[in-house]
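Researcher: Structure for this, please.
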Amino acid sequence: MPGNTLSKGEVFVIETDAAAREQLSAALQQSAYDVICFADGASLLSEAKARMPACVLLEMPPDRSALDVLKRLREENCMAPVLVTAANGSIAMAVDAIKSGAADFIEKPFRTHDIVGRIDAAIDESAQPGASRQGWLPGCEPLTAREGDVLEHLAAGLTNKEIARRMHLSARTVEGYRASVLKKAGARNVTDLLRRIFDQGSPTQA
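Model: Predicted structure, token format:
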């Protein structure tokens, strides 16, 4: 309950499935989080103006209105990590969520303890100072710290699933970051991307 001196912070949750909501609340409270559930994005945004949550867990409805909530949170300088859940997730939806400021994108059905681990990881990462990666392609939009991490793993030859395990993300989220990196570089695929990066770091051939 709020007031617990050992609380790791408040997690704001929008989840329409009552059973999933109860399981999430119980698991998060067992992990020393205080949980506040909201019926809709408007009530969550209103509360976020008054208090800063440690993390936000947003369900993506069919109308994708969660993206608007995400953008509003960022516009209003709520820097808490936001995790998006969706019953019918796609790579395009993951990319849109990440572009709008999501830290992770999780497909349903999910295991409750996985969500708690993802929230822990997102909060830990948000506490680290972010920095754009050096050695990125000149003239291209800078990478976020997360995108830079994904790029480093791709360069090491890891698959999406291996990267997801190492970064404590869903494979769908990694796909979203990978697509974002490719788009920023204007690359057709990972091979093309890595060739451009390594070529620009090597002497040009006469």
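Researcher: Any notable elements?
Model: Residues 131-206 form a domain with the Arc Repressor Mutant, subunit A fold (CATH 1.10.10.10). The CA atoms of residues 19 and 78 lie 28 Å apart.
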